[in-house]
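Researcher: Go.
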Amino acid sequence: MESLPVEERLFEPGSFIIREGDFSRELLILKSGFCIRHKISKDGYRQIVGVNIAGDIVNLHNLCLDESDHNVQMLTRSIVAAVSKDEVRFLLHRRGAIGAAFLAASLVDLVDIQRVDTK
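Model: Structure:
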């Protein structure tokens, strides 16, 4: 992953880096700070579905899905590295073990997120 080209971006607390329904062409790696992943419940409440810390890929599920099914919002001032999904897919194709680990991690995230009743 370290050899992939990245674009670093700075976000302030409260900033949304992904909104539900957004389309993404890149994976976002949290380099510093904290963020939450959340959905809005059918009652209009925010349901936190995950907390991310430095080193986490905050939208790993977007490797398989183009449209985000939840929001990602910064809790602290943070630096995020954006990596092209195409570049990551190429790496995963060449390195099967890394691909399997990414798949397992994204499936766990998707199962947790789908448990939230927002309909």
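Model: The CA atoms of residues 1 and 88 lie 8 Å apart.
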